[in-house]
Amino acid sequence: MSDLTLSRTGATLSYDVAGEGPTVLQAHGLTSSRDAELELLDLRPLAARGHRLVRYDAAGHGRSAGPDDPERYRWTALADDLLALLDAVGASEPVDAVGISMGTGTILTAAVRHPERFRRLVLGLPPTAWETRAAQAGIYGQMADLLEAQGWDALMELMAASTLAMPPVLAERGVTLEPQLQHATAPAVLRGAALSDLPSPEEIATLRMPVLLLPWAGDPGHPLSSADRLHELIPGSELFVAENAADADTWPDRVAAFLR
Q1: 146, 152, 160, 187 - which has most CB atoms within 10 Å?
Q2: Beta strands 52-56 and 11-18: pairing type?
Q3: Residue 24 near residue 66 (C-beta atoms within 8 A)
Q4: Strands 211-214 and 238-239
Q5: CA–CA separation, 52 vs 93, rounded Å?
Q6: Which residues contact 249 (CB under 8 A, 6 or more apart)?
Q7: Confidence bin at 13 (pLDDT 50/70/90)
Q8: Whole-number mean pLDDT of the chain?
């Protein structure tokens, strides 16, 4: 599987495609990448089970370059990238989309604009939204300020000492996720996240495709309140809360069954 690239305004997206069949698009979380996301949700087996799996690095993450401009990392801009990527891979039929955190925000932003492009949605780790967003945005702003003032090592030390950096499920697994941001533009990426929020509840309530929600417990950056509210808003949505690592380990099979 080789890297492909898509040129976008201010960014060059790196992506890969594997398998044949209905398209499944996977979108990773903030500070992650398509490779780092394997620690959370490895969907590569879908490519051998009759799906065409498209994975990509969002602008400013992994192998995708982006500009030093926070506006370019708003979820609205990332949703434009997602839709352009669907065009680039020739996804003429509605696709299945699987997101984690920022990826969930990106997918929802795209889906309320163009619901006809999506068949099913898997929304992993729904992020802070609406009433809870301001506090999380403040954290991202502080991280960006620290990066600019003291550099990457200072941010790593802060994250290592912060309970926010290690949700209970990851702590139980003994997993440490190193940020997959490009150093030069990392502050802009974080500030772009701080400027972002989910679409309004009224917009989300218009969605009618099947939706599977996969939150986990004990993570203020991905509170259960977000998943519960989405569950209330989206008719017929399914909700599974991972209380521990064993529960989270069932995610790939749950996603595979949902997409069948």
Answers
A1: 187
A2: antiparallel
A3: no
A4: parallel
A5: 12
A6: none
A7: very high
A8: 94
Q: 174 Cβ partners below 8 Å, 6+ apart?
A: none
Q: Which two tokens stand for residue 60?
A: 């400013």
pLDDT score of 92 more than 90: yes
Confidence of residue 1 (pLDDT cuts 50, 70, 90): low
- Residue 113 neighbours by CB under 8 Å, 6+ apart: 79, 83
Three-state SS for the chain is: CCCEEEEECCEEEEEEEECCCCEEEEECCCCCCCCHHHHCCCCHHHHHCCCEEEEECCCCECCCECCCCHHHHCHHHHHHHHHHHHHHCCCCCCEEEEEECHHHHHHHHHHHHCHHHEEEEEEECCCCCHHHHHHHHHHHHHHHHHHHHHCHHHHHHHHHHCHHHCCHHHHHHCCCCCCCECHHHHHHHHHHHHCCCCCCHHHHCCCCCCEEEECECCCCCCCHHHHHHHHHHCCCCEECCECCHHHHCCHHHHHHHHHC
Question: Under 8 Å CB-to-CB from 153, ≥6 apart: which residues?
Answer: none
Structure tokens at 78: 């990332």
d(CA 139, CA 148): 14
Task: Tell me the pLDDT tens digit for each residue of 24-52.
Answer: 999 999 999 999 999 899 999 999 999 99
**Smallest Cα–Cα separation from 17: which of 51, 49, 42?**
51
The two three-digit tokens of residue 236, written as one number: 């017929």
